[in-house]
Amino acid sequence: MKHIKSLNTRSMEQSAKKGGCGECQTSCQSACKTSCTVGNQSCEQKK
Amino acid sequence: MIHQYKNNGYNIVMDINSGAIHVVDDVVYDVIALYEDHSRQEIREQLSSVYSDQELEEAFSEIEELVREKRLFTEDNYQEIVTDFKKRNTVVKALCLHIAHDCNLACRYCFAEEGEYHGRRALMSFETGRQALDFLVANSGSRVNLEVDFFGGEPLMNWDTVRRLVEYGRSLEKEHNKHFRFTLTTNGVLLNDEIMEFCNREMSNVVLSTDGRQEVHDRMRPFRNGRGSYDLVMPKFKKFADSRGQMNYYVRGTFTHYNLDFSEDVFSLADQGFEQISVEPVVAPPEEPYAIQEADLPQILEEYDKLAKGIIERRKAGKWFNFFHFMIDLEGGPCVYKRLSGCGSGTEYLAVTPWGDLYPCHQFVGQEEFLMGNVRDGITRTDIRDEFKLCNVYAKPKCRDCFARFYCSGGCAANAWNFHHSITDAYEVGCEMMRKRVECAIMIKAAEAAEEGVEEDA
Fold it and tell me: How far apart are CA B373 and CA B355, in angstroms?
């Protein structure tokens, strides 16, 4: 496209079909301990 | 739902429900702003003085293509998932073990009140820790990966128990088909070579507490006699970070009202050679002099912008470092289930006191109305767990229309409780900062994508 450059993103809709295994890391265990941050976590199935 | 913003020369359009993100030029940016509530004719009329007919037609055509591909103006179809959520059986997969309710520092902002958590000083016994790990294995269903954070107070004040619990945890793995990911959060005072070696073998992550510049660190992180701790802990943290190959650790700081120019602290840590950095806003009652006030927000938001630009510049110059709150995994990030359910406190994630009592998370420890049970008898107050189970972005009125809802997933329940006495509320100052961090994180991705594009074209 000439006017739009899309970043590569995971489809949220697709993730609803296959997701929910729960193997991913608990967010507060990573570093924060005071500020919930989920968007930066990785999906275990995508590793 | 669309969120569009300009940052550092980039026009960014986020399609919230699909997760798609587009970097667009001015004409598309302006058309998208009018697209939902105006006819084409109206848009043409409004923008004809700025853009040519051809530009506007091209913009319409490209926007329509994205709409057809369900990557722009997509519907929110996730409410149904939430209905399933309420019925789901949750398992416990992570514990925060309060291995020591005691500390050798007297940090001024400590929510644990110098490690004591509104209670008395205590160290967790090996027996209680063992029961906690047994409880975790027994309540984790089919989940393989289990997380255990050794937390405090200062966990190195009870190091022998930490070491023995890691060994005990490993002895359970094969028989129960589990894998423990141990982590440690420490102030560094008692850190030595032997502990570093053990952690490098056994801990999947270590969190090293420091606030950045020496004067900032020493002001908030003194010993009980008032002397600063920077000179003692910094050389050890550097050695520790290097010994882990600059991976799987964070130097983690807290910024307060006293250092609103916290980007300087982040850069100071980067200048010291640290590559994994997290500096986060203090959580404190508003009456504390160091608490972040609403009036501080403009400066804080500006600092995040400054930090984001600085990170891009440094990375270009070959001085890469990672800032935890700007990390965003666009291609391999969490599924929508995870994004809706949040941090898992009170359900998947529990805190364990030195006596074996269970709380929804470390921030609730010591608040008796949140005592959920103990590691011997399990969760006896299932009503508390059920309340946390319902805690998702659709249950929070303030989150429902927020563009950042799938990135922060509803924020910190403890913050909401501290400020509003409701876990389904939200702490607005925290929300503002979160939204800014998401915008900065995506801008950095846009800048990196543009940089890669330039390389490909060359």
Answer: 11
Distance CA B442, CA B7 (A): 10
Residue-wise pLDDT tens digits, B365-419: 989 999 999 999 999 999 999 999 888 888 888 898 999 999 888 888 888 898 8
Has residue B76 got a pLDDT over 60? yes
Q: Cβ contacts of residue B422 below 8 Å, gap of 6+?
A: B416
Q: Which of residues 14-43 of A touch B (CB under 8 A)?
A: 15-16, 18-20, 22-43
| Strand order across the beta sheet in which B249-255 lies | B322-323, B276-281, B249-255, B203-209, B179-186, B145-151, B94-98, B349-352, B357-359, B373-374, B378-379
- pLDDT tens-digit map of A1-47: 999 999 998 888 888 887 778 888 887 766 666 666 666 677 877 65
Q: What are phi and psi of B167, to 5 degrees?
A: -60, -45
Q: How far apart are the first and last CA of chain B?
A: 36
User: Distance between CA atoms of B267 and B213, rounded to whole angstroms?
Assistant: 9
- Please report residues of B whose CB lies closer than 8 A to that of A26: 93-94, 147, 343-344, 348-349
The letter for the amino acid at B11 is N
Its ipTM equals 0.89
In 10 A of CB B388, how many CB atoms?
27
The whole-number average pLDDT for the span B51-76 is 97
User: Which residue reads 């563009």 in tokens?
Assistant: B403
Radius of gyration of the CA atoms of chain B, in A: 24
What's the gap between Cα B253 and its chain centre? 13
Find which of A2, A12, A24, A46 to mutate to test the B interface (most B CBs within 10 Å of its CB).
A12
Tell me how far CA of residue B417 lies from CA of A25, B91, B254, B351, B427, in angstroms.
24, 24, 20, 17, 9
Rounded Cα gap, residues B418 and A35, in angstroms: 13
Residue B299 has pLDDT above 70, yes or no: yes
Do residue B407 and residue A43 have CB atoms under 8 angstroms apart? no
Q: What is the dihedral of CA B328, B330, B331, B332, to 10 degrees?
A: 40
Task: Please calculate the CA angle B14-B315-A35 and round it to the nearest 5 degrees.
Answer: 55
Helix (H, G, I), strand (E, B) or coil at B376: coil
Residue of A4, A30, A38 with shortest CB distance to B22? A4
State the Cα torsion B231-B282-B162-B140 to the nearest 10°. Answer: -160
Any idea what DSSP says for residue B421?
S
- The pLDDT of residue B212 is 98
The structure's pTM equals 0.94
CA end-to-end distance (rounded Å), chain A: 30
Q: Does A9 contact chain B (CB < 8 Å)?
A: yes
- Lookup: tokens for B112: 């644990």
